[in-house]
Amino acid sequence: MAGEINPQVEQLTKEFRAKFDRVRTEVQKAIVGHAEIVEGVLTCLFVGGHALLEGVPGLGKTYLIATLGKALSLQFKRIQFTPDLMPADIIGTNMIVEDPQSGAKRFQFQKGPLFAQLILADEINRATPKTQSALLEAMQEHAVTSGNSRYILEEPFFVMATQNPIEQEGTYPLPEAQLDRFFFKLLVQYSSKDELNEIINRTTTGYKPDITGVMTGSEIVACQNLIRQIIVAPHVQDYILRAVMATHPNGEYAVSATNKYVRWGSSPRGAQSVVLAAKVQALLDGRYSVSFGDVERVFLSSLRHRTLLNFEGQAEGVDVDDVLREILKSTPTMSTAAA
Asked: Residue 309: what are its φ and ψ, rounded to 5°?
């Protein structure tokens, strides 16, 4: 009968929600508050995307990602980015090794910390463009190149990066091409009074969270495949396309705020991020198709780093999130052409 849900899909959906909740529960043993950030990081994880966390020091960005590493049965590595960090420091390099039997010497590739499944790129904007570009290949291709050899990274592979938006001296802002590779840009805000009180109680009394690994790499890959089976109705996808294209200044669907304040709008990756993240929202809500509300919940995180302000927007201190909210407010859910 029409409208009936395949029992197998229904069971897989229940299992996905259970796994998502298990990982979230483990993370929340250590992280107080930041519910939206935790959900955003997990969304990136389950769609196979990378996350960029931005916030002032001391808000728990690094701790959150390190805790996630403990909650997953994945190989986890932390890389502290500094101005003197070279590509070989993260990729690896060829070393001269001696055969213990024959004494013959040969080159052997020694893998760097990038050969892991979950990478914490701490303070990523402190590394030079040369090192950032080495990370860029890994993020896009899930592979790295050293000399004439190319090495495939083990799946699943995720980069979770942090950066401080205040102190810019001695930093190297990420190029637009690299920003575009991040699935979400998540803004970590200050904790509330109650959350800060709980943080103090946990961190000054000897409390040690017992984080248990609750998911394997193969389970994560299975969840990624399930998410891609969720339906996006044509009219919802049309809404996504029009909303994303509304970030393009002087384009067909641009709103007044776009034309006034935006220099460059989102790439197609922005639309891909909105669709996949909205599918996760639908699954978490027990639905098998994406709604307009799902799109609105993930729109800012998907596009805030893909929508670049012009000089006027920067001079007036315009928040790119406000421009995106104006786009959501001004873009009708149903196309006038369809109507």
From this structure: -80, 150
